[in-house]
Amino acid sequence: MKRKTRAATAIALSVGIVGGGIWAATAFIDQQQTLLIERCTAAVGADEHRLDPEQASNAALIAAVSIDRGLQARAATIGIATSVQESKLRNIDYGDTAGPDSRGLFQQRPSQGWGTEAQVMDPVYAANRFYQELEKFDYVTMEVTDAAQKVQRSAYPKAYADHEPEGRAYASALTGNSPAAVNCILKRTETAGDPERVISQLEEQFGDQNIQAEALGNEVHVSASNTLGWAVAQWAVANAKSQSSVAVSHSGLQWDRKAQAWKQASTEDGKVIITLARSNGEG
């Protein structure tokens, strides 16, 4: 009888220890998630620049619209640097003393002919409108701050120069000229991903003439190679938080949300594959 009692006690203790270990491990992971600071970086050469996921998503949109318009990567550098200065890459709905009606990513003023308030608050419209002005002159041969000022007509004409390095790094990566240069460190997903929504955003920002995409289960397959392929792949990484992406594969590499990095992977030639979460809590 005593042996049975001792055995039962030992089993109970073992179960308790295992259960306590599982609880401790879960609590540790949850704490790690709580303390994690979400961020995206663009590492090009020796330079590395950090944005939060919202800012990175807006930088990706600005770069994508430049590709849709057939512009050189320098246009994206100017666009991103300008938006950093004007709104910190946020789609803000207020202005300041100098421009009380300024709105959006570029703080465009409806009173100055940039469009209606609703239009300039639409990031895709705002980026297109910015480039519409930029295309009127030879921005390629100009200093970034001078080109930005020619479009914006700011009271602080040299301020854009402060943001040229980060504009250049993100533009190089997000136009596909620097492969696997964008990495985002994110918490677990909060919702399941929506493949049709991702395709809609791809087509809206890159242009439906550039993008051929299809939804296959919880994946989005995009036919794209070379610089366009890398532009789409890094656009997907920059949007991974809002789109609940857990992996992005292209050209022998895969960005993995859980690993928080790019790694070697088997990929299909000429394809970008965006894998979305099936439920919350993935990654």
Brief rundown of the structure:
The protein is an alpha+beta fold and 283 residues long. The chain has helices spanning 2-35, 53-68, 73-87, 117-120, 123-134, 144-152, 164-174, 195-206, 226-238, 240-243; strands spanning 39-44, 47-51, 182-185, 213-216, 219-223, 245-250, 253-256, 261-264, 271-276.
Q: Count of helical segments? A: 10
The rough form would be described as: globular
Quote the distance from N terminus to C terminus.
49 Å
Q: Which class of the largest domain in CATH terms?
A: Mainly Alpha
Unreliable runs: 24-29
Mean pLDDT metric: 91
Query: Any idea of the CATH topology of the largest domain?
Result: Lysozyme
Number of domains: 2
- Percentage of β-strand residues: 15-25%
The CATH architecture category of the largest domain equals: Orthogonal Bundle
Number of strands: 9
Largest sheet geometry: 6 strands, antiparallel
Radius of gyration, in angstroms, nearest whole number: 23 Å
Order of helices and strands: HEEHHHHHHEHEEHHEEEE
What portion of residues is helical? 40-55%
